[in-house]
Write a structure and sequence with these properties.
The complex is a heterodimer of chains A (201) and B (197). Chain A is α+β, with helices and mostly antiparallel strands and 201 residues long. Chain A is built from six helices and five strands, in the order H-H-E-H-E-E-E-E-H-H-H. In chain A, 23% of the residues are buried. Helices cover 56% and strands 16% of the residues of chain B. Chain B has helices at 2-32, 34-41, 66-76, 124-133, 142-171, 176-196; strands at residues 48-55, 83-87, 93-97, 104-109, 114-120. Chain B is elongated and about 75 Å long. Classes of the chains: A alpha+beta (201), B alpha+beta (197). At the A-B interface, helix 1, helix 5 and helix 6 of A face helix 1, helix 5 and helix 6 of B.
Chain lengths: 201, 197
């Protein structure tokens, strides 16, 4: 097998294996790029986004430093009977700590009020646009669990895949001698537009 | 003829959109490894540093809203462009100019008529993240709308590459078996994540 063949096959098979991610990143960019449209569309339904599941006192002692935030969030989730999801814990204000628990299909937020030691648990209504943006934004190596971390590894692979497609695509284009001139025009037009916008935005 | 058109469109669209795809790939890598940057810079917001201080001698129409005031100030500083504006409790007007390369915060204190111009500290990950998250249709600036159009073109491009790529693969009989294996492997793994995550 020649290098040119290996290059073509890598371009093709990598693309086929990563197609679901590539397609997802493409289609899920729509709700990001047209947020107002999707928000207005949902607002027209007149349905509340969050539904209160419970409102009670918590026995979990509040954290006394920033490092204790995440274990505190985990303990609050456990107390609420939520386990195995990705989550983030944020100090919303001196008196309020929010915990967001999320999977692709379901999101729950817990609000802990420090002065009252009270916690509310709210579930988010399912929305297709948020399902897509949730998948799009998923990543990072802060979460615990092998499956969670493996998704982030795949995100890295998709990024490297895109870089490989660019490099292998450029190699394939260069091999087509009859298309070099138009190819240069396309590359230069893209680069000039991109740099021009970057400098002026 | 159709097949050739598909192949050429696949290639030329990719050549044109190379900078965008490269930027999205590199910025995603940076965001996926945010912890590395947090360790390096700390977890707080990116700090601003004073660029200049000056007295603003312009005047505003009596019924001017915040947006009118911010545009007038930005124009006088030769910094007009996408921005957000708020009024603090003490009456100061804070303009966040969303410059892609050098974001600035401009604070106007009406009592002293002082203008404080601060620039955000340069950090590669913050720059890439700004790039990745940049939208544009809602800002009211033509330049931002142009950027938003290019983002839409990238989205359409991604859909087109996926569909045209499948078409081109199916045309190459010799790659069908291995290709189907790769495709099914990818779909199965993705389905697994859909169930488990």
């Amino acid at each position: 097998m020649t290098f040119a063949q290996l290059n073509r096959r890598t371009h093709l098979y990598l693309a086929l294996a990563l197609l679901p991610w590539f397609f997802m990143y493409g289609i899920s960019s729509l709700p990001f790029a047209h947020t107002q449209f999707f928000e207005q569309r949902d607002a027209a339904k007149g349905l509340p986004l969050w539904t209160l599941r419970s409102d009670r006192l918590s026995a979990v002692p509040p954290p006394d430093n920033e490092k204790a935030l995440r274990p505190f969030g985990a303990a609050l989730l456990s107390e609420a009977g939520i386990s195995g999801t990705a989550f983030g814990t944020y100090q919303q204000s001196p008196n309020q700590i929010n915990v967001y628990s999320y999977s692709f299909w379901k999101s729950t937020q817990l609000k802990y009020y420090v002065d009252q030691k009270r916690v509310t648990v709210e579930d988010r209504r399912f929305r297709w646009d948020q399902f897509l943006t949730g998948m799009h934004g998923r990543g990072g190596f802060e979460q615990e669990g092998l499956v969670q971390l493996s998704w982030s590894v795949v995100v890295d692979i998709v990024c490297l895949g895109i870089i490989i497609w660019i490099a292998s695509g450029l190699y394939m284009w260069w091999g087509l001698a009859g298309h070099r001139a138009w190819g240069w025009i396309a590359i230069l037009a893209g680069a000039i537009s991109f740099i021009g916008l970057t400098l002026r935005l | 003829m159709f097949s050739r058109l598909v192949r050429r469109s696949h290639m030329y669209l990719a050549l044109f959109l190379t900078p965008w795809m490269l930027m999205y790939a590199v910025s995603t890598l940076a965001m996926n490894h945010r912890a590395v940057f947090v360790e390096r810079y700390g977890s707080g917001p990116v700090p601003f540093h004073t660029e200049r201080e000056l007295v603003y001698d312009g005047s505003f129409p009596p019924d001017a809203d915040l947006k009118t005031i911010s545009r007038q100030i930005l124009t006088s500083l030769d910094l007009d462009g996408s921005h957000g504006v708020t009024r603090r409790k003490d009456g100061a007007i804070v303009i966040n100019r969303n410059d892609l390369i050098t974001p600035r915060r401009i604070t106007f204190t009406p009592d002293s008529r002082m203008l404080l111009v601060e620039r955000m500290e340069r950090r590669s990950n913050a720059f890439l993240e700004r790039f990745h998250r940049r939208r544009g249709y809602a800002t009211g600036y033509r330049l931002d709308t142009s950027w938003a159009v290019t983002v839409d073109v990238v989205i359409v491009g991604m859909m087109f590459w996926a569909i045209s790529g499948l078409w081109m693969w199916w045309e190459m009989k010799v790659t069908r078996a291995l290709g189907a294996l790769a495709l099914l492997g990818g779909i199965s793994l993705y389905a697994l994540y859909l169930v488990m995550l």
